[in-house]
Amino acid sequence: MTTSGRTGKRLPAVLLLLLLLGLTAAQASAQRTPNVHTGGETGAYHKDFCPALTRELGNAGATNFSCMPSSGTRENMERVRTNPRDFGYGQLDVFTLETQSLSMGNTLEVVRQDDLKECVFAVTKGKDITSFGELSAMAPSMRVFLPPQQSGSAGTFKVLQGIDRNGLGRAGRVTNSASVDEAIRVALSTDDGVAFFVQFPDPDNERFKLVRDLGGHFVPIIDRSILAKTISGQIVYSAQETRVQNGRWLEGGIRVNTACTPVVLFTGNPERVRDQGEKRQQTDIIRTVRDLPIDSLIPRQSPFRAATARARELSQEGRERLFAYSARTRDRALPFIERMIERAAPRY
Fold this sequence. Notes:
The protein is α/β, with parallel strands linked by helices. Helix content is 47%, strand content 20%. The chain has helices at residues 2-31, 44-59, 73-82, 92-101, 132-138, 152-163, 180-187, 206-213, 224-227, 276-291, 294-297, 303-310, 316-344, and strands spanning 35-37, 66-68, 87-91, 108-112, 117-124, 143-146, 173-176, 193-199, 217-219, 230-231, 234-235, 238-245, 254-268, 312-313. Strands 1, 2, 3, 4, 5, 6, 7, 8, 9, 12, 13 and 14 form a twelve-stranded mixed β-sheet that branches. It has a two-stranded antiparallel ribbon with strand order 10-11. Helix 5 packs parallel to helix 13. The longest helix has 30 residues, at 2-31. It is globular, with a radius of gyration of 25 Å.
């Protein structure tokens, strides 16, 4: 009886503690403000795009969004899957690939896909590498340097390896560097290195100047297989002529033909929001963001808009010419590379 009496006295206190813990968790959940997940703190998504988006959301009455840096598209997708009221930026190629590999199903919804593209750049000192065909043929014998493993650039290289299985897919010496700049520096410190990165084609970007200062050159990432690639029925790359250096007095600028992929803004499927009021709010926010003019999200004076305006889609004739050159140089390089690999193989 005594023990039962003591237990009876303690039971209300235990229940009270559990109730308080439950209320605290519920309040913390309710107080969590939605975020816009971007990329690196010095990148365009975080510094330029997100502030414009959160400003417009605030004008529409959604004043509680914050910009959150991340490692790239994949991490943004994982965060939004966990918190469907959030938004995230990403590259279309990585977004569509990771939608499959992460078994996202219909958990995410693309809100916008404007005519703003990031482009794939490969830089090397290798004088014999002037086309994607040559780069593909020589990839097994080269050292490939990429930005961090979770970055959009590393994700794009994964997509390209899946497309070019017998070329880039056979690259055995792939290293992830701490940053894009480090990957470029290490790759251009040797003749058998190549760095891949994804970048807005802004000719005033210091990264392009770094490539020139270190004696590197750009390799066109143009091949029929790349431009024909579809993921979930969607074409993910287009061929564009981009500018990587502005013209100077008595000098022309430098242009590079390469594959580019659109920027996407996504959020969670409203059906995954449990609270009915928040679900309606999510649906309204999606509609609001879709209806916004592009100039309110990326001002015309932005260097990224200017870079996009200067870039132009390659004509069918231009693409076919580059396809033929890529195939021709690949065929010419393959026998030499195969002999090199055969000689380097251990003999027992």
